[in-house]
Every structure is written in C-alpha cells, then in structure tokens.
C-alpha cells in the first residue's frame, strides 16, 4: 500500500486501511441483487491507488449489477440530452 498514491481528502480522520497499512478482503451484499460478494484487497488497491477513487467509498454492487447501472445511467443521460435538444429546437 502506498498512501502517496491515494486521492487527497479533506477529512480529519484516516481510513482503516491506511492506519493498518494493508488492504483486506471485504465481504458485502450487492445493493441490487443481494448476492454475497467479496471486494478483494487487489480490487481495493486498484480502486484507491490507480483509479483514484474516494478513500471513503466501498463496493456496493457486484460486477453484473455495476454494468447494468452504467448502461442505465448512459441511457438516462442520452434521453436527457435528446429532451434538452428538442426543447431548444422548439
């Protein structure tokens, strides 16, 4: 674990993995399908140090549900843009 690679935060406290100086696998239930999953230490390292994710976030969705949520959000953004374009054209 390399704390220098973490995204800066304005919090006065420190995440548990920084104090511990290593990541541990974290079990969780998917928010959407309720399937039991594990957010592995390797995945956490990638999220926090490479992707620069917020140090206070944790996994809440399994991989298939994350993909579905990405598609849903992309469609919602597309519908909003199309609606705004129609509104401007009118």
Could you explain the architecture of this structure?
- The chain is mostly helical and 90 residues long.
- The protein has helices at 16-20, 41-50, 63-89; strands at residues 26-29, 36-39.
- A two-stranded antiparallel sheet has the order 1-2.
- Strand 1 and strand 2 (36-39) form a beta hairpin.
- The longest helix is centred in the last third of the chain and has 27 residues, at 63-89.
- The protein is extended, with a radius of gyration of 18 Å.
- The termini are far apart.
- The model has no long low-confidence stretch (mean pLDDT 95).
Rg, alpha carbons: 18 Å
Please give the number of β-strands: 2
By helix and strand content, what is the structural category?
Answer: mainly alpha
Q: Secondary-structure element sequence?
A: HEEHH
Quick recap of the structure?
This protein has 90 residues and is mainly α.
Question: Key features?
Answer:
two-stranded antiparallel sheet; extended; mainly alpha; 2 strands; 90 residues
List the helices and strands and how they pair.
Layout: H1 16-20, E1 26-29, E2 36-39, H2 41-50, H3 63-89
Antiparallel strand pairs: 1-2
